[in-house]
Amino acid sequence: MAWQAVLVFLLTVARAQDFAAAHDGQDSSPQTKTSCSAAGFGESYRAGEEFLHREKAVAAVPYLEKAHQICPSDYAAGRDLVIAYGKAGLLEGARVLGEELLREHDVAELHSLLGELYSKKGDIRSAAKQYEAAAQLDPSEDNVFNFGSSLLRFEDDSALRIFRFGTEQYPNSEKMHLGLASALYGQGLMDQGVTEAYKASELNPTDPEAMDILGQMEHIPPGMSAPIIARFSALTSLYPRNGRLTYYYAMSLSGRWSDERAANSARVLELLKKATELDPSFAEAHFQLGVFYQEQERPLEALHSYQKATKLAPEQESYRYRLALAYRKCGYAGEYRREMQIYEKLHTASK
Predict the structure, then answer these.
(1) What is the mean pLDDT of the chain?
(2) What is the DSSP letter of 257?
(3) How much is the CA Rg of the chain, to the nearest whole Å?
(4) Which of 237, 258, 279 represents a domain boundary (last residue)?
(5) Among residues 68, 88, 87, which one has the least CA distance to residue 77?
(6) Are residues 247 and 284 in the same domain?
(7) I want to staple 131 with a disulfide (CB 3.0 to 4.6 A). Which of 70, 146, 186, 282 is the partner?
(8) How far is it, in rounded angstroms, from Cα 281 to Cα 30?
(9) Of the residues 251, 279, 307, which one is the last residue of a structural domain?
(10) Are residues 314 and 349 in the same domain?
(11) 127-175 confidence digits (pLDDT tens)
């Protein structure tokens, strides 16, 4: 994914370093109850709340607009109208109202809502600024995590410092360790990133999210193969229909992520085939299955797997290259030349 910017970086490394020191546990919880007793307010507000609770934001908007018009000083009504606008897709209206409310109620909750709105609009730096303000006012687990996550998109080094702070403050937070894992990996610290992802999985062993992120890293540090393989094995037993977990289990067994020899090639092949059956749209699983067929001198089966992978991801140049070689191995000279031409164009364009 590409996140392009026209604004200067929101945070410098120095500001990120000072983040932990800027907080001493203060809490600035906003007013959450309505305080308006004007005629018609309560009825409109309750109707809007009911629709919002039922995830019918579009229906909630006119009632909450009326409540806000009757009593514009009521924080809860204004905040809920911001939420309704956002869920209804009225992002600009939500932003304008949110910033208007901030002038009277400078609270973490509103900054967090604005951060979410800016994220939806694709303005990641403005989102990070709002999440930073929320975390400064209330350094809760969610606020610190949201701030760190927003920085991951454009300032990995600052994100790393925020997530280190977060894991110190919330050592038992699965998502904070996952945030730190992503920040470490983004800085090229692969061993440490995988280790943090594994720590997150230890905090919640039955949740597949941490090991899914670890699998996407495609790397196993020295000495960690056994526990990681065991965790993938346990998760595939818990989630037998999850094609990605099955694929990650196969690849961890294959030794390709750890530069070790595969302990059981037949088992790896079995798991890769199962992964493609469970998730036929998973291009990488088809590709790796083709690689294993190729290594076992089963060229026609390798060709079929590469064809499927390339159909699913036609712009992936490594798939095209392997497919071309498979065509040549199977005696299809014309197809080999065609695929090599496509590969060369893709390769040239990627430089």
Answers:
(1) 89
(2) T
(3) 26
(4) 279
(5) 68
(6) no
(7) 146
(8) 46
(9) 279
(10) yes
(11) 999 999 999 999 999 999 999 999 998 888 899 999 999 999 999 999 9
Q: Which residues contact 243 (CB under 8 A, 6 or more apart)?
A: 274, 275, 276, 277, 278, 279, 282, 285
Nearest of 295, 342, 335 to residue 319 by alpha carbon: 342
- The C-alpha atoms of residue 232 and residue 269 are separated, in whole angstroms, by 16
Is residue 164 assigned to a domain?
no
What does the pLDDT look like over 209-268, one tens digit per residue? 999 999 999 999 999 999 999 999 999 999 999 999 999 999 999 999 998 887 788 999
CA angle at residue 323 from 319 to 328, to 5 degrees? 155
Distance of CA 44 to the CA centre of its chain: 37
**Best CA proximity match to 296, nearest among 257, 324, 329, 337:** 329
Distance of CA 146 to the CA centre of its chain: 12
- Per-residue 3-state assignment (H helix, E strand, C coil) for 199-247: HHHHHCCCCCHHHHHHHHHCCCCCCCHHHHHHHHHHHHHHCCCCHHHHH
For residue 347, which amino acid is it? H
CA 159/CA 157 separation, integer angstroms? 5
- Written as one letter, the residue type at 156 is D
Q: What is the pLDDT of residues 318-328, one digit of tens each?
A: 999 999 999 99
On the CB side of 25, CA atoms within 13 Å amount to 1
Residue pair 66/44 in contact by the 8 Å Cβ criterion? yes
131, 123 Cβ separation under 8 angstroms: no
Token pair for 221: 């540090």
| Amino acid at residue number 326 | A
Q: Give Cα 330 distance to the centre of its chain.
A: 40
Given a contact cutoff of 8 angstroms between Cβ atoms, the answer to whether 212 and 239 are in contact is: no
Look at the block and give the residue holding tokens 């199977």: 330
20-24, 70-74, 162-166, 195-199: lowest mean pLDDT where?
20-24
Closest CA to 18 of 165, 146, 156, 133: 165
